[in-house]
Automatic annotation (TrEMBL), chains A, B:
Pathway: tRNA modification; tRNA-queuosine biosynthesis
E.C. number(s) listed in UniProt: 2.4.2.29
Protein name (record): Queuine tRNA-ribosyltransferase
InterPro entries the UniProt entry points to: ArchSynthase1/Queuine_TRR, TGT, TGT-like_sf, tRNA_ribo_trans-like
Pfam families reported in the protein's UniProt record: TGT
Region span, RNA binding: 269-275
GO terms classed as biological process: tRNA queuosine(34) biosynthetic process
Region of interest: Disordered: 1-23
UniProt key word Transferase: yes
GO CC annotation terms, alphabetical: cytosol
Positions annotated to bind substrate: D114, S115, G116, G117, F118, D168, Q211, G238
Length: 404, 404
């Protein structure tokens, strides 16, 4: 146990970390490959980030429950901001007056903003779509707002997003092929308008979003349309919306090979540790998901032995750290203390478990990246899946410290 | 502005900070004096702390919204735990099994625990008092519990409190003299029983609590009773319970001169920055209060220019830090961002403002201590009061950075 622990820690320390060396153009450089999986560096105006990378979600300009210092300490390279939330509060013009999102939230590294398309679609009856864009009511105060490809791109400019996303429509699955086709084609028209509205700046970029649901021919047509327009990177949208892991993976299987080899690929809204592993193995480089932070707030910890629910009574006197791989404040935090904090509804519980989960996701990405570089990704994947299935470390395997 | 800022920072850095050098007995050593005000060091098993000192409240084993690292970073030396809350959740036996409160909450420095007396008294109809102790119902699940001087002292032993408090009764003010006398005398009998039940250990100690409301003769009799028993320190209880600052100060004026010169004095549950200043000038060395942390959660910031409410719309585009004296994450946090976080109900707002308020209280204590050592406390007090009265820094005095 101790040997494995020490071994992993030193391996982690040798792995690349994001740095703030700014680049005068936004590009991705491949550094290694293992079957479909790619290791690389994403170079941006706000620093360079090793890929594959998981990007914590900072919806309204904060990763919930984390200081920017804490997010940095987990090893995160890029954080996300949400156009929809930020345009409502505090407003794009205000963010611009405050010096942009980087300065506002004390995150000098790269920031990717979504276009607002996905959030607006999920408003249901509160929104009305036409060929030009979407009119919707704020979930906060019911006020009326409008997003079009041009408006969304302008907002992302004002937010000072390192990476802007094209404005698109994301239909819920399952959907008829007709609906998927119509929606994909509109998204491609919107992608062209988004690109037109984008202001190129050194080290900044814009990604197009591949749509088409789980339909191979629609995905192929979407890729063709986007690559003809030309973006600094390509996102795969319209997945992780209820179709299940198998359909998601099979869609990736026929989509990623169509994408340019020299551009970064961002799988939107994914996912569990196992989703990330499988998607990296299918050629994706960038990920975002609220799962690790949201789970952290509800006492769920992701670990090498699968998820643990810290509210469970069996942790009440478990004096071990959450896992053998903790650092920072988690290294000195027992499972029993975390259990106590959640039982007592203390803020520190969500704070520490969000920290743990985000650090776990970053560590997972670093291990996957190292395995790609070493050509041992298949072996790591087998090991990870076996460990996840095995369940929590037993007291025999990893003894509890006893203090009395 | 900049000069004043730099000057204060370097002065701060030269001031003493708590350290973890353990002492084999618990004692207080005077280092300087300015009229009634005292500067000193409190030596304990868990390190030494410069006094006067403000002790953040960690009710159920966490200073709300703060990691232990963050509490340390503010310069805090001692933290508080609450016997009442901890006996209910997670329970004293469990805390002991987890290695004591220091280990459980990752606070290797000194911990002071209150005796539960004050909390139990405030339960009102949920509690029943007799000569031997108090029976009460838990505010969490209604279960029945009992506290006596012996039980409270035993719980504090199990929590591994560096400083235990004698179990006492604290009547609400105003109260008849008869009621105050009866209550004080019972508290003195309970103090003797608490002392009897206390297990002396190297570097640990127990404080008696002076009661007697605002009555001079009762306070004098209470001091006499406690000093005859003999404690490592003396607390002044029964104040800051609604009597107002004037009555509190006049009670201190006749109480502190009666206390031993060579023992630390702890004024319980106090208070505002102005309360702390006035109480140090009346000979008190130690303080605790939920005010800075609770205020932080409700958007209220204590500053050298008085309190600011960060929900106020005038902060929406104020790009300055909260004050010119911030360090840590607050140094890179604008008022506008704090305003946004509170408007959006984001956890990071309470987290950052609690941090600021606790750091402000620690900095205030360091400045007061330095002034005691330099014999300039009167001048500092005048300066502080004038600054507090002046109100927020104007944009003329301290210009806003403009980014667009």
């Amino acid at each position: 146990m101790t040997q494995q622990h020490d071994g992993l820690l030193s391996q982690d320390q040798a792995l690349p970390r994001p740095d703030l060396t700014p680049s005068d153009r936004l590009y991705w450089q491949e550094e290694g490959r293992c079957s479909q999986a790619r290791a690389g560096w994403l170079h941006t105006r706000h620093g360079r980030v090793p890929t594959p990378t998981f990007m914590p979600v900072g919806t309204v300009g904060t990763v919930k429950g984390m200081t920017a210092d804490a997010v940095r300490a987990t090893g995160a390279g890029v954080v996300l901001g949400n156009t929809y939330h930020l345009m409502l509060r505090p407003g794009a013009d205000r963010v611009q007056k405050l010096g942009g999102l980087h300065r506002m939230m004390d995150w000098p590294g790269p920031i990717l903003t979504d276009s607002g398309g996905f959030q607006v679609m999920s408003l249901g009856p509160l929104r009305k779509m036409d060929e030009d864009g979407v009119t919707f009511r704020s979930h906060i105060d019911g006020s009326s707002h409008r997003l079009t490809p041009e408006i969304s791109t302008d907002i992302q400019f004002k937010l000072d997003a390192t990476i802007s996303m094209a404005f698109d429509e994301c239909p819920a699955l399952p959907a008829t092929k007709e609906r998927l086709e119509e929606s994909m084609e509109r998204s491609m028209r919107w992608a062209a308008r988004s690109r037109e509205a984008f202001t190129p700046r050194p080290g900044y970029g814009q990604f197009g979003i591949v749509q088409g649901g789980t339909e191979q021919d629609l995905r192929a047509r979407s890729v063709k349309a986007l690559t003809e327009i030309g973006f600094e990177g390509y996102a795969i949208g319209g997945l992780a919306v209820g179709e299940g892991q198998e359909l998601m993976f099979s869609t990736l299987d026929f989509t990623t090979p169509l994408l340019p080899q020299d551009k970064p690929r961002y799988l939107m809204g994914v996912g569990t540790p196992d989703d990330l592993l499988g998607s990296v193995m299918r050629g994706c480089d960038m990920f975002d998901c609220v799962m690790p932070s949201r789970a952290g707030r509800t006492a769920r910890a992701y670990t090498d032995r699968g998820p643990l629910n810290l509210r469970n009574a069996r942790f009440a006197e478990d004096t071990r750290p959450l896992t053998p791989h903790e650092d920072g404040p988690l290294a000195r935090t027992s499972r029993a203390y975390l259990h106590h904090l959640f039982r007592a509804n203390e803020m520190l519980g969500p704070m520490l478990l969000t920290w743990h989960n985000l650090a776990y996701y970053q560590r997972l990405m670093r291990r996957i990246r190292a395995a790609i570089m070493n050509g041992t990704l298949e072996a790591l994947a087998e090991q990870l899946r076996a460990d996840w299935a095995q369940g929590d470390w037993s007291p025999e395997e990893w003894p509890l410290p006893h203090y009395s």
